[in-house]
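Chapter summary example.
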Amino acid sequence: MYATTPHMFHEGEEMTKFNQMCNTVKRPLYGADCYAYAILASGFGADIVVEADLGLYDYCALVPVVEGAGGVMTDWYGRRLTLSNHKRSKGRVVACANEGLHREAVAILGKSWGTTSMISSIIKGGMWHLAAGVCIGIAIAKSKK
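The structure predicted for these 145 residues follows.
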């Protein structure tokens, strides 16, 4: 998972959710800025990008790149990133390599306090290199045993 800097996440709920993501993924990385989205779209080296406090100019051009490559890019609640909902999204952006991973990330970032997600079983188990469908199938099968 990439983020520009951990300092962009405000104290409180935003920082808590970001820390949950950091503790869930295999390795949080920082400093790639827009290059992280290119890495995600290319399919090499990043599965998730999580950001906060972005301006429209920071992400508008990236949405069609990520989506054109088969990824999903929304705000933390799964809402489309548009000019009209920027204030509502507050610059909180999550981009994922596929829909399944996006659902899991939004379950952490957009959740109400106290709910849980299976993203850790998908990513930490070393399966993040596999295709999303295989990863989700394995995670679900393991959780049912």
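To summarize the output: The first helix runs from residue 13 to 24.
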